[in-house]
Write a structure and sequence with these properties.
Helix content: 25-40%
CATH class: Mainly Beta
Number of helices: 2
Oligomer: single chain
CATH architecture: Single Sheet
Number of domains: 1
Radius of gyration: 23 Å
Length: 76
């Protein structure tokens, strides 16, 4: 679930909310219940590739390993 950062313009508190992408933005501050809340723009964490089925996890390191194995064989 995406994480959204909000800031209350009344009490200047920042807070984080886990919301569905289809949910409406938060309209009340969690600290002072003010309706003067704005959503902050954040860069996020980017994509994280875990598990198999991705180039980064399955094939990227294999090329390095194969080239070092070939160098070891050539030296012998």
């Amino acid at each position: 679930m995406p994480t959204y950062n909000y800031k209350c313009l009344s009490c200047n508190e920042k807070f984080v909310v886990f919301q569905n992408m289809n949910d409406k933005p938060i309209s009340n501050c969690q600290y002072c219940s003010s309706t003067n809340v704005e959503k902050l723009i954040s860069s996020g964490t980017g994509l994280i590739f875990k598990g198999s089925g991705f180039y980064l996890t399955d094939y990227k390191n294999n090329k390095k390993n194969q080239s070092t194995k070939n160098k070891k064989i050539d030296k012998e």
